[in-house]
Design goal:
Helix Hairpins, elongated, 7-stranded mixed beta sheet, D-Maltodextrin-Binding Protein, domain 2, 3-stranded parallel beta sheet, 3 domains, alpha/beta
């Protein structure tokens, strides 16, 4: 009887030890940058780094299990072959799968070609915004300054002896020459005139810098225009869909767009560059890194979703992970990792 108790105690201690030092099987996507990818012999990315921070704090041992596609990762997680999977996974009702708290706000949008707007179109658009207001303000202030100068200088300045409109014209030329490299070509003859001139010179420097900055920003930020800017423009057009995503195909069917299937995003981009497509439908998290050369993301948003960590349902590990994940978010570790792996637009979408 005593021997049986000893054996049972040994088995119990062994089980506890094994559970305490369990090695978690962590699925990871190999080509889902910047969230999870394989580079220079190691796995890296936002979700990988976040998991590593959590595992380090909890003293968890783990082994990475690589996957080529999200479908493979979901399948292995449902079968219980892995404990969680790393990558840009959206919250979706799958059997035997639960999710952590969300960490990223994602959109289904379009990657499309951009073309340069004409020079005069950009220039006129800038005047409709800040540049036009600055120009109008300059005219109003200039008119007031010229008339004040005429009033105070009319008895001492040679120009002001001339009839009103001739004198105003001469002073106006001098003042607006001050806005250019010509400099001031009129010298005031009274103290009030010098004060007015000094105020105008300071105002001129201020206006020139703002005006040039406004025009420059218009040509750098507004010079590119996407082909598709509204959902209505997608009607009857051809769009690439990668990996036969049924949800994207349904969305295109609903808005009367045509879906063409491609195995990878680079293959779809080749077709886009050859003008056989109007755009590629996908998530911001998947398409953002492909904004290069003449490719850019459209302002069209077809659907909004939340990214989170998928976990095997009904396992003690789920509760442990969620507690550890919330602690990491509370310590601002998530936000710091978003700054490391994402661009400015991506950082804005982090839920920390």
């Amino acid at each position: 009887m005593r021997q049986i108790r000893i054996i049972l105690l040994f088995v119990f201690c062994y089980c506890i030890t094994q559970q305490t030092h369990a090695t978690y099987q962590v699925g990871v996507l190999k080509t889902a940058a910047p969230f999870a990818f394989y580079q220079d012999g190691v796995y890296t990315g936002l979700t990988v780094a976040l998991w590593q921070k959590i595992a380090e704090k909890q003293n968890w041992a783990y082994t990475f299990v690589p996957f080529d596609t999200k479908e493979q990762a979901y399948h292995e997680l449902q079968k219980g072959h892995v404990d969680l999977i790393l990558g840009p996974f959206a919250i979706h009702p799958y059997e035997n799968i639960t999710y952590s708290a969300p960490y990223f706000l994602d959109d289904v949008t379009l990657l499309t070609q951009a073309h340069s707007q004409r020079f005069w179109t950009v220039f006129l658009n800038s005047f409709k915004n800040q540049a036009g207001s600055i120009f109008l303000l300059t005219l109003v202030v200039g008119f007031l300054m010229v008339n004040l100068m005429w009033f105070f200088e009319r008895k001492k300045a040679p120009l002001c002896v001339l009839p009103y409109w001739q004198g105003i014209g001469k002073i106006t030329w001098s003042y607006f020459a001050c806005l250019s490299a010509l400099g001031l070509v009129y010298n005031p003859h009274t103290n009030y005139g010098m004060i007015i001139t000094g105020v105008w010179i300071i105002f001129s420097i201020f206006v020139i810098n703002i005006f040039i900055g406004s025009i420059a920003s218009s040509f750098t930020l507004s010079n590119l225009e996407t082909r598709i800017n509204t959902i209505d423009q997608m009607k009857g057009q051809r769009f690439g869909v990668v990996n036969n995503r049924s949800r994207y195909i349904d969305l295109l069917r609903f808005i009367q767009g045509n879906a063409y299937l491609f195995p990878t995003i680079p293959k779809a981009i080749d077709a886009l560059n050859q003008n056989t497509l109007e755009g590629i439908v996908g998530r911001f998290s998947e398409l953002n890194m492909h904004q290069k050369n003449n490719l850019t993301l459209s302002s069209v948003v077809l659907e909004t979703m939340l990214l989170a960590f998928p976990l095997k349902k009904d396992k003690p590990f789920v509760t442990q992970f969620n507690k550890a994940f919330n602690a990491v978010k509370y310590d601002n570790i998530l936000y710091s990792l978003c700054q490391k792996y994402l661009d400015q637009e991506g950082i804005k979408r982090c839920i920390s």
